[in-house]
Amino acid sequence: MQLGIIGLARSGKTTVFNAVTRGSAQVGAYSSSSQPNVGVVNVPDARVDKLAEIYKPKKTTYATIQYVDFPAAGESFGKGEGPAGKFINDLARTDALIHVVRAFEDDSVPHPEVTIDPARDIETMDLELSFADLAIIERRLQRLETEMRSVKAGERDQMQRLKDLLSRLKAGLEAETPIREQTISEEDARLLEGTQFLTAKPFLLVINIGEGQLGERGSIEASFQEKFRRPGRDVAVFCGKFEMDLNELSEADAEEFRASAGVTESGMAGAIRMSYALLGLISFLTAGPDECRAWTVERGSTAPVAAGKIHSDLQRGFIRAEVIRFEDLVACGSEAEAKKRGLLRTEGKAYVVQDGDILNILFNV
Ligand SMILES: Nc1nc2c(ncn2[C@@H]2O[C@H](COP(=O)(O)OP(=O)(O)OP(=O)(O)O)[C@@H](O)[C@H]2O)c(=O)[nH]1
Ligand SMILES: [Mg+2]
Description:
The chain is α/β, with parallel strands linked by helices. 34% of the residues are buried. It folds into three domains: 2-44 and 64-114 and 201-278, P-loop containing nucleotide triphosphate hydrolases (Rossmann fold, 3-Layer(aba) Sandwich); 129-199, DNA polymerase, domain 1, CATH 1.10.150.300; 300-363, Ubiquitin-like (UB roll) (Roll). It has helices spanning 13-21, 46-55, 82-85, 88-93, 118-150, 153-174, 186-191, 217-228, 240-246, 251-260, 267-278, 303-310, 312-316, 326-332, 335-340; strands at 2-6, 37-42, 59-61, 64-69, 96-102, 203-208, 233-238, 281-286, 291-298, 318-325, 345-347, 357-363. Helices cover 43% and strands 19% of the residues. Helix 1 (13-21) packs parallel to helix 9 and helix 5 packs antiparallel against helix 6. It is flat, with a radius of gyration of 23 Å. The strands form three sheets. A six-stranded mixed beta sheet has the order 2-4-1-5-6-7, sandwiched between helices. A three-stranded mixed beta sheet has the order 3-9-8, sandwiched between helices. A three-stranded antiparallel beta sheet has the order 11-10-12.
C-alpha cells in the first residue's frame, strides 16, 4: 500500500514525509531533476506493544505503509508536462493521496501565491486533480469515438455504456464532484477497471500548522474537519517541522518537548493511523515467543485471505483459525487462561477477520 504526498511548492511535503518516515530527505527547494522520496513507515499500534509485553518475543513487527513524497505541483500539474506532470503516472499508481496544505507562517519561506490561505490551496489542488481526471476522460472519449465507428453493431453496446459513463463522470467533475463522491454501480466500475482516477482515490488533507499554533491544534482540526471532511476524505492537523524535530530526540525528551508545547499525543501518529484507516485497512495480530506482529488486510477479508498474508501455504492448506480478541487476551493475561474461560474461538473459511483479532492458523500442505 502506497500513499502519495502532494501539495503546492514549499507547503512542507518533504518535512511531513521526514516526520512520518523518520527520514532525512533534503528539505528546501526541490531541484527539478529530483525523484520522489520513498519511505516505509511502521503503523503505530499499542496492541503490538502490549502483546510484546505479554510474550516477550524475540521480534516485534508492526504493520507498514509506504509514503512517496512528490515534488511540488507547479502550474503544469495535471497537464502531463513539467516537473510534477511527469510524475502523473506514479501518482496514478498510488493507493491514496495526502495533500499537505500550508498553514504555517514564515516570511523566510515564500508561498507561490504569496499569502497563506489553506482553503484556497485546498481548492486549487482539488481543481488540479479534477483537470487531470478530465484529461484522462477526454482522451478515452476521443478514442472510443474513433473505435465505435469501426466496430460491429453487437460490440457497440458496451462501448456506448462506457461512453455514457465517462460523460456522466465528466459532467460530475465539471460540477466539482470528485469521482469518489459519484455513484458508480458495480457493473460500471468493471468497465473502468484499470483506470486510475486521481479524484477517486482516498484522500487525506494534512494541514501543516506552525509551531506557534500547536496549542490550538484541537480547535483548528475541528474547524477544518467541519469544512473539508467528505466521504473518502479526512483531515489531520499537525506541525510537520515540530514532529520532524521530535524525531531527533529520545522518547523521554520528545515526551517532555511535546508537553511543553501543550501537545498530548503525537499528531503524526494520529495521521498515520488515519491514512491507514482511510485505505480501508485493518490489522490482525499474531503472537508467540518468536514474534508478535500486526498484519495488514483489507477490511472484509476472510480468514484464509488473512492467512495468505502470513504465507501462501497457510492460505492453500487452511484448515481453521483459532481466534482470540486482543482485549480478551489482555484481560486474561495469557492464552491458556483465555482458553480456560472459553474466549478462544475456532473459525472456518468463511470467517471475516476483524481488526484486533489474534489469529493462530491451523493448516496442512
Ligand atoms: N516554520 C515552519 N517552517 C516549515 C514548516 N514546515 C515546513 N517548513 C519550512 O518550509 C520550507 C519548505 O519545506 P519542505 O518540506 O521542503 O516543503 P516541500 O513542500 O517539500 O517543498 P517543495 O518540494 O520544494 O515543493 C523549509 O524551509 C521548511 O523548513 C512548519 O511547520 N513551520
Ligand atoms: Mg519537497
